[in-house]
Amino acid sequence: MKIPHSLMAVMACSMAALISSCGTNSKSAENTAEETGSSGPEAKEVIYMEGVYATSTLLPLAQYGVENVFDDDTTTYWATAKGAGPDEGLMLYFPAKTYVKELVLKQAENDDLATVQEITVYADGQRVESFDASQPVKIEKDVTALFIKIASADQSSTEDLVKEGGDETLSTETFDSKFSVGIADLKLFNNEGPLKVHAPLAVAGAITASSTLKPAEAYAPSMLFDSRKEFVWAEGAAGTGENEKLTFTFGADQRISAVKIWNGYQRSEKHFTSNARVKSFEFGLKNGAKAKYTIEDSMEPQLVTLGEPLTGKEFELTVLEAVPGSAYKDLVISEVLFFDQATPVLIRDDGKAEENIKSLIASTRGSLMESFVDRRLKNHQETPYATSDKSLILRSNKTFVLYEHTTSSDASREENSEIVADGNWEIVEQQGNYARVRIFGKLINLSETVDYYKGNTQSSFVKIFQDNLTITPAEVKGEKYVDTFYNGSPGDR
């Protein structure tokens, strides 16, 4: 990966959580949010995750969703998309620091499921270690976030590529396109025994917005409930977002006693300040009385407790005032979570999400890109002075991830560097054996920071970037930041 010197500069980071509350739930009442840090309403017996997500999920989403790993039913399971396995994973956000002694995975068993051999665990952004997936995994840390990455699985094959000259070796690794990986159960333990961990309550429904920034798939209102704070809803109207509306529709009556908001664009501090944020808004039943709320201009999550719980099928949030962005007028909200007392509630619009995934897959059918979507491209390279592993995944949900780990050494020292980039991607052009793809998001140097996969990613080590990738049957090559990836035999993909 090519990293300009300017990209290595450390950006300053400052977060504040100055939040207060007052008022009642009347149309004229004005309330401010409660100070919460990263925690929500306290749960006495059950630990409700503040968010959980899987990086890849097999369709239909309702059948293979991440919630299955917490339902105490080993006949249900989370599964990756076909052809996706290594470098995919599960992200868990806790509402507060929680001691985790160890975790145990139970893998799902089916003819079309590969066996996970090794996992890598990140606790609050810090790599804990890689572990045998069939054994209990020792964590022994207070954590607010855990990322469980599939490091290796069977049904993978390696091909040596011929490179001319010198002592360099190069190989590719391919995961069989007919297989997924599946996790049936995830148990977490502290010193006293198993923790009673539940995912937020996912309720079928829909989220609509009065406007959405283009491309709509990248900034859709459904992003508000995906538990990924880096993927956001952005309004697309003129101005800075005042009077823009979000409508939340449930399939049945739902009670809401509080609303938690991750204001602005939380991908990095620069994203946050560059785009407009909410200053005040109205919230209530769509056809009923609404209360005005004011929240701080902060990247901290902010909990708004309603004067009294509301029950209904349709709720509406209207932006009243906005804080202008330093570079863009578009107003952004990263995440929303409703509460019914201690139980976090989110809306799951699987129909829309599946429609978008199927549309992307259909657009690549019969083209070169069909063999790249949801398929990891991995290279292993060795020279006399360095060893590197790098991988790239372009997912059918229009997210991507890029990993690179390099170990270099000489007579006096050894240096390790780990780089991760993630974000969104879109096809710019495709014809015959050629395609051009734009990727955009954040790039993090893990050799400099332990903040990746953390609930609140510190922007001090986050680099905003975009690149254009040229894709041919033989290779994938970036223009600025992404080094060349060499492909194996086309038939293997």
From TrEMBL:
This is NAD glycohydrolase translocation F5/8 type C domain-containing protein. PROSITE patterns: PROKAR_LIPOPROTEIN (PS51257). Gene3D superfamilies: Galactose-binding domain-like. InterPro entries: Galactose-bd-like_sf (IPR008979), NADase_transloc (IPR057561). Residues 206-338 form the NAD glycohydrolase translocation F5/8 type C domain. Keywords: Signal. It comes from the Bacteria. The lineage of its organism: Bacteria, Pseudomonadati, Bacteroidota, Cytophagia, Cytophagales. Pfam families: NADase_transloc (PF25302). Residues 1-19 form the signal peptide.
